[in-house]
Amino acid sequence: MFKKCNTDKLIKELDYIEVISKSILENKDTFDEIQYIFCKIKDIKNTVKRLANKDTLDEVELFELKNFAMSTQEIIKNYNKLNLKIEYINFKSLEKIIKILDPENLKLSTFYIYDSYSKDLAQIRKSKATLENKIFKAVDIEKVEKLKIERLEIIVQEEKEQLKIKKQLSNSLINYIEDINVNMKSIGKLDFLIAKANLAIKYNGIKPIINKENKIYFKDLINPNMYKILKLENKKYMPISIDINKKTTLITGANMGGKSVSMKTIVLNLYLFQCGFYVFAKQANLCVLDFIYLISDDMQDINKGLSTFGAEIIKLKEITRLMNLQDGFIALDEFARGTNPVEGRTLLKAICTYFKKFNSISLISTHYDEVLLDDVDHYQVVGLKNVDFEGLKRQIDLKISQNSKCKKSIDILQENMDYRLEKVNKETKVPKDALNICKLLGLSNEIIEIADKNL
Question: CA-to-CA distance for 345 and 368, rounded, in angstroms?
């Protein structure tokens, strides 16, 4: 994750994704070839480590090095065609390794201890072949057994000579360890960069504008994973937009209104940005942060004996420590929902007041009302605000009568929910749609009437 001190490197990384993305669209066949070669490359870190320790490599390890060298040369050839100038990708030619491990210039992706490595080895193998031919033609059992003993002695000689050659090869290859390591790193970085570019192309990612004003702006932001799931189900995805230009921003909204999804979508895209990815929005103007912290869902840790609320407080302690050292982004999703509403509301107001002392940005979702303070932006999930409840109720009742499945009523409710965020003022009340949702889903009228009367 890039931090504020690495802003220049982050800008370069995003520029490189732009360069690679354009090049992929113009040179698809070359990139397909490079990625095909990537699939042939094995992890040789352990082999290189043994080489650095001056161990004698076996045939498999020598094959791995030869295969890596040949694959690297193919990558270099294709990479040079693209004429890309990426600062941290610097391939070194490994032709000399190939010559060492392919003395007969057969250009095969296999390895064998060739006769050309040693005249003695060639002579030993010739003697072994002659002896094996005699064994094949011999009829007398005693003679065959005698020949086999002779062959065994030759095999021992052959193995000794092969070991001697493997030591010589290993000693020769030690000189190229640095070049091998440089190429391993360059291949990994190029692979990662291509993956970032492909992801950006697939989901129409964009390169965000970077600001130094502690502001976060997204227009038509999506969660690519959720987008993919909904698309498979032929459902419409509703992007969100948000402009965070104050230290603390609150999100409130209807029950089932998607506050948590909105929070996670924002955090996901911020984290991707900080890791040098494009973001999934139509527009984005973001600041570079030192840390990103999300407290969401069920935080309880049974092994530590912590309740949800207790786990949240432990995490909050970590956040306050970080805020005293660095500037970051804190997302609290329905914080303090594990305690009673009066104390939860009071604690949340105290947190908002405390957070304003620091330069970090906080985004807090809550169903509590009366939390809003001065100098705090307030967004609300549109939810069911514009829905015709009676019409929707008739639609759900009809569907249930036809299908007798409550799940269908949930689907209809979700299809009519507006998940967009709209900016409201501090006087705007937190929506209280719980009873309306209970009615829509067919909960007993008696329960609803009692709850309505108490409310």
Answer: 6
d(CA 68, CA 46): 13
Neighbouring CB atoms inside 10 A of 157's CB total: 17
| pLDDT, tens digit, 9 for 90 and up, residues 158-186 | 999 999 999 999 999 999 999 999 999 99
Here the contacts of 150-159 (C-beta below 8 Å, separation 24 or greater) are 154/124, 154/127, 154/128, 155/128, 157/124, 158/121, 158/124, 158/125, 158/128
What's the rounded Cα separation, in Å, for the pair 131 and 128? Answer: 5
Strands (E), 328-428: 329-333, 361-365, 377-383, 418-424
What separation in angstroms does the CA of 314 have from each of 248, 295, 303, 311, 318?
21, 11, 14, 5, 7
Q: What is the pTM of this model?
A: 0.85
Residues 187 and 166 sit within 8 Å (Cβ to Cβ):
no
- Number of other residues whose CB lies within 10 A of the CB of residue 87: 8
Structural domains present in the chain: 1-202 (1.10.1420), 205-428 (3.40.50.300)
Determine which helix (DSSP H) or strand (DSSP E) holds 60, and give its type and residue range.
Answer: helix 59-82
Q: Give residue for tokens 């690495």.
A: 6
Read off the pLDDT of residues 269-310 as tens digits, 9 standing for 90 and up: 999 999 999 999 999 999 999 999 999 875 555 445 557 788
State the Cα–Cα distance between residues 14 and 89, nearest whole angstrom.
Answer: 15
Q: What 8-state DSSP symbol labels residue 341? A: H
